[in-house]
Amino acid sequence: MGDGGGPPKARRHPFVLAALCLLAPTGANAAAPIQGLGRAATFTFQQREISAVVAALALLEAMLIGALWVNSSRRRRAELALRTSETRHRALLKVIPDLMFVLSRDGQYLDYHAKNLGDLFVPPEQFLGKNMREIMPPALDARFREGFAEAVATGEPVLVEYALPLGGEEKHFEARVLHEEVGFVSIVRDITERKRVAEQLRKSEEFNRRIIENSPECVKILDPDGTLTYMSPAGMQMLELDEFIIKGRNILEFLGGRDKKAGMEALARARAGGIGTFHGMVRTRFGREKWFDAVVSPMLDANGKVESLLAISRDVTERRAAEDALRDTQAQLARVSRAMTLGALTSTIAHEVSQPLAAVLLNARACQRLLDGGPANLPAARDCIDEMERNARHASEIITRVRTLVTKAPAQHNRLDVNEVIGDVLALVRDDVASAGVVLFTELEGDLPSVEGDRVQLQQVLLNLIRNGIEAMLDNGELPRRLVIRSRRATGHSVEVEVRDSGLGLAPGDEERIFDAFYTTKTDGTGLGLAMSRSIVDAHGGRLWAATNPDGGATFRFVLGGAPVSA
Prior knowledge:
Elements (H helix, E strand, L loop, with lengths): L13 H10 L21 H51 L3 E5 L5 E5 L18 H4 L2 H17 L3 E9 L2 E11 L4 E7 L1 H23 L3 E5 L5 E4 L1 H7 L3 H4 L11 H14 L4 E8 L5 E12 L5 E10 L1 H28 L1 H27 L5 H29 L6 E4 L1 H18 L3 E6 L6 E4 H18 L9 E8 L5 E7 L8 H4 L15 H11 L3 E6 L5 E7 L7
Parallel strand pairs: 12-14
Antiparallel strand pairs: 1-2, 1-5, 3-4, 4-5, 6-7, 6-10, 8-9, 9-10, 11-13, 14-15, 15-17, 16-17
Helix pairs in contact: 1-2, 10-11, 10-12, 12-13, 13-15
C-alpha cells in the first residue's frame, strides 16, 4: 500500500538498510556519478538497493568467518587443555596404587581404575555395567549402601573397612566413598600390611604389658625431670603405694641423703643419652626399709630426642640381709681361725710374755737390794724401776695384740704403715720361727705409701701366710729352711707384700685351688686360712695370689692400695 504517488514500500532486511545507509550519497553528492565505471553513471534507487544487499552479504560472510575462526581457536585451546588434563590424570592414576570405582546412584559400576588387575576381586568384564548387589556379598553390599546414604546426608567422604578373600589369603581394604553428580566414587586402598603391622604392634604391646605387670622388678616411666608417669604393680607392692600417692610425684622425693644425689646423677646420665645406675634405700608407705639397685635409661622419640626415661629397680633387701649375715659368718670364722692360729702359737706367746715378766721380777729384786743399801743407791734403783716399766709395757703390748686378734669387734679401716703391721706379726711368730729351725730374712723397703685397711685383719693375713710357709718347710729334711718377707712399692700408691719359703712348693693346678674354702693339703688343716686371707684382701680392694718358685718352694704375694701387679 502506497503513500500517495511513490512506489510501494517493501520491508527490507536490517543488513540491507545498513548497506543503503553506507552507500547512499548525502547532501550535494546525492546525484553524483559513480567513479571507476569507465563512464559517468548514476545509480537508480533499485541499483543502490542491490548493491546494498551485496555489501550486506559480504559483511555477514566476514562476520561469520571471524566468528567461526574464534570458535575454532577456542575449541582447539579447550581440546588441548582437555588432552593435557587427561594426560596428567592418566599419569597420576598410573602411580596411584589405590583402586577406583565410579558407580551410579543405584550402585551400578560405570567405570574403574586398577594399576594391577590382580588386585580386583573379579575381572572388569564381570562387574562393569552390573550392580553391586550382583558382585558383592550381601553384608558388604549393605555396608556400602549405608556409606552411600551417609555420604549423601553429610556431603563428606565416608570410610568403609572390609575384608575379602583374594589370592588365597584374606585381604583387608579401606574404601573412601564420595558423593558426586554422576553418583558415587569409591577409592579403595589395600590395608592388609597396615593391619598386620598394627596387629603385631598390639601383640607386642600386650606381651610387654604382661611382662611388666608380672615382673618382680619395679618398672617406672619417668618424665625427663624424674616425674613418675607409670609404676608397675610390683613396684607399687614393693613400696606399699597406690596410684593416687605416686601421681605427679618425682622419684627423687622417695630418696634421701646420699641416695638422692646418686639418683640425680643417674637421671642426668640418662637425659644425656647414657645409662645411669645407683644403689639406695627407700622407706615404704609404712616406714619399712627397702634396699634396691636401679638402672635408668633414655627412651627416644622418632627424632632421637630423649622423650622419657625408663627406670627399673630391683628389690635387694633380702640379698643385702643375706650379705650382712655372710659377713657376720665370715667375721666369726675369722675369729675362729685367729683363735686356732693363736692356739698353735701358745708356746711362742708364753715365751714372749715370760721374757718381760722375768725381767720385771729380776729388776724388782735388784731394786729392793739397792734400796736396802741406803740413799746412795737411789739413782740405780730409779733405773731399775724404769726398766721394770719398759718390760711391763712390752708384756702389755703382747697381750693387747693377742686380745685384738680374738676380740669380736667391727672392722676399722685406717691409714696403715705396712711395715709396722709386718713388725707386729713378726713379734708374735719369732719364737715359732726359731723353734722350727727357719732362718728369717726381712727386706722391707722404706718410705712406702700408707694404705687403707683394718690392722687386725691384715695381721691375720700375714700370720696365716707366715705359718703356712713355716709348715711347708717342716718336711725339708736337711735342706735349708729360709723364709723371706719383703715389702716394696708396686705401682702408683700401691704396696706389695711377699712371703717366700723354700719348701716343697705347690702341686700343679693348686695355685688357685688352695684358696678354695675347706681345701687343704695338710693332714690336720681346716682349709680356712688361705680362703679367709683372700677374702680379706679382696675386701680391701687388693689381690692375693700364689706361685711356685723355679728353685723350689712357693711365694705368696698380695697388693694393697692400688692396681695389683701381675704374678
